[in-house]
Design brief:
This is MarR family winged helix-turn-helix transcriptional regulator. By secondary structure, the chain is mainly alpha-helical. It folds into two domains: 1-31, no CATH class; 37-150, Winged helix-like DNA-binding domain superfamily/Winged helix DNA-binding domain (Arc Repressor Mutant, subunit A), CATH 1.10.10.10. It contains seven helices and two strands; from the N terminus they run H-H-H-H-H-E-E-H-H. A two-stranded antiparallel ribbon has the order 1-2.
């Protein structure tokens, strides 16, 4: 195993195993049935705005990794559907900020609640030790996500 696979600090964390596990879980998680069907990109934009606050289109292009024209079309549709709104940027009158609306937040909350309903019976089938292990890993996974966001990834 190389240090890249094991991590930079010569730990016993196998990055390959972590990657495979996250990918396998994500494959399941993003395909959970939901009450309201929206594209992954739509949900990602709504999540980004809900958690990070209003963003310029150029910032969303970077975080969502889609083209400027594609994002502009998506934001136009979301605005028409009442899920986001554009407002002038108070720090730069030439720019606009996209912000999530209350209706957009409701979709996000409903999605999390719906997914929680699907996960709860599966979690109940885990052993107490498995549930404890997942619980113990949550702060580290949250920190890993923060570091990724800080790094622009």
């Amino acid at each position: 195993m190389t240090s890249t696979q094991r991590g930079d600090n010569n730990t016993d964390l196998d990055v390959g195993d972590l990657t495979r596990t996250i990918e396998n879980f994500n494959r399941y998680y993003i395909r959970l049935p939901v009450v309201q069907k929206l594209s992954f990109t739509t949900l990602s934009v709504l999540d980004t705005l809900a958690f990070s606050g209003p963003k310029r289109l150029t910032e969303l292009v970077r975080t969502e990794q889609i083209s400027q024209p594609g994002l502009t079309q998506l934001v136009t549709r979301l605005e028409r559907d009442g899920l986001v709104e554009r407002r002038p940027d108070p720090t730069d009158g030439r720019a606009v900020l996209v912000r999530i609306t209350d209706n957009g937040r409701k979709i996000g909350r409903a999605r999390y609640e719906d997914r929680g309903r699907h996960l709860t019976p599966l979690i109940a089938r885990l052993t107490p030790a498995e549930r404890q292990a997942i619980g113990a890993a949550l702060p580290a996974l949250a920190r890993l996500a923060e570091l990724g966001a800080e790094a622009g990834g």
